[in-house]
Write a structure and sequence with these properties.
The chain is an alpha/beta fold and 303 residues long. It contains nine helices and 16 strands. The structure holds flavin-adenine dinucleotide and FE2/S2 (inorganic) cluster.
């Protein structure tokens, strides 16, 4: 599929929670081709401050508009939150391999969507596609005020259940524990024929989801997040270890999250601890680019 590189006009950039924003971008060429689980690479500033584009899952597509839902993480997302409607952003997309929701038994199975924090972003687009199957949606967040998109899922007819770390809403504990209780409430014969899991969120949550899926013999797809430089499969900066199918005697190989993923069959992933990137020390101190960007942020906020 041809990747589009375009300048998209910002239609809306709205704060939806203390820590999150939703941006609507006018990007017909991307909207036409986008599939749930795919992402866009956004150049957050035209100045040579942050050279790398930032990846964001496609949250929703309405006509020729593409929405992204983003949390404030660092300098890039802070700059993004300051963008005004009418401005333009450089976009690359749609990128990657999204969720498979159409092949084999998946079209008959009951989808369970599991979201951790801002990982909810691409699952709304998926729920829109799966709405006839009345998905169960499990939303995990730190606190009640960190829960996102509950209304959107309910409007699509989803059965929404919530878990918060502090118990301020719904189940007190991890969303993966909530998943176990949902699965355990089903008759055991039905579980692996009936359910299919789709998850996006922190790595620990995805790893737990994969373990639960394995224990109950349920199909599961997980959307991984890795630091990305190019987003198009060229730099190998985003590789993860997967079980090897190709070479005999070799137990694993590497796949690129941006090109072969971000969505993978949970059974494929080798859940090794994430190595610290080679530039981690510099990143912790902040790069020269980031210091310059922080100055820009300061100038913007003072102006
Ligand atoms: C395929 C994909 C889809 C994504 N979709 C979304 C989305 O829909 N909404 C959303 O809010 N975020 C999403 N992210 C994460 C988002 O790209 C990062 O939060 C963003 O790039 C941070 O940029 P920054 O300049 O604000 O932060 P930086 O200053 O670059 O970093 C701030 C902190 O965020 C961490 N971080 C930066 N990039 C990533 C990353 N790719 N994965 C994990 N941690 C990271 C850094 O380690 C650091 O601790 C996605 C990431 C990937 C790989
Ligand atoms: S980000 Fe360059 S190969 Fe994935």
């Amino acid at each position: 599929m041809k990747v589009q590189s375009l300048r998209a006009k910002i239609a809306i950039n709205k704060q939806v929670a203390a820590h999150a924003y939703k941006m609507t971008l006018m990007a017909p060429a991307i909207a036409k081709k986008a599939a749930p689980g795919q992402f866009v690479m956004v150049r957050v500033t035209d100045a040579c401050l942050l050279l790398l584009r930032r990846p964001f899952g496609i949250h929703s597509v309405k006509g020729s508009n593409v929405d992204i839902l983003y949390g404030l993480a660092g300098v890039g997302t802070k700059l993004l939150s300051q963008k005004k409607p009418g401005g333009y952003l450089d976009l690359l997309g749609p990128l990657g391999k999204g969720f498979d929701w159409r092949s084999g038994a998946l079209v008959r199975q009951s989808p369970v969507l599991i979201a951790g924090g801002i990982g909810v972003a691409p699952l709304v687009f998926l729920a829109e596609k799966l709405k006839k199957l009345k998905p169960v949606v499990l939303l995990g967040a730190k606190t009640k005020s960190h829960i996102l998109c509950e209304k959107e899922f309910k409007a699509l007819g989803c059965d929404v259940k919530v878990a918060t770390d502090d118990g301020s809403k719904g189940y007190k504990g991890f969303v993966s524990e909530l998943l176990i209780s949902v699965i355990a409430s089903l008759p055991s014969v039905a579980r692996n024929d009936v359910l299919s899991l789709y998850a996006c969120g922190p790595r620990s949550m995805l790893k737990a989801t994969a373990a639960i899926a394995k224990q109950y013999n349920i199909s599961a797809q997980v959307s991984l997040e890795e630091h990305m430089a190019c987003g198009i499969g060229a730099c190998l900066g985003c590789v993860v270890k997967v079980k090897s199918k190709k070479e005999k005697g070799k137990s694993f190989e590497h796949k690129r999250v941006c090109k072969d993923g971000p969505v993978f069959d949970a059974k494929e992933i080798v859940w090794v601890p994430r190595p610290e990137p080679p530039n981690a020390k510099i990143r912790r101190r902040g790069t020269r680019d980031e210091f310059s960007a922080k100055n820009i942020l300061l100038e913007n906020s003072e102006g």
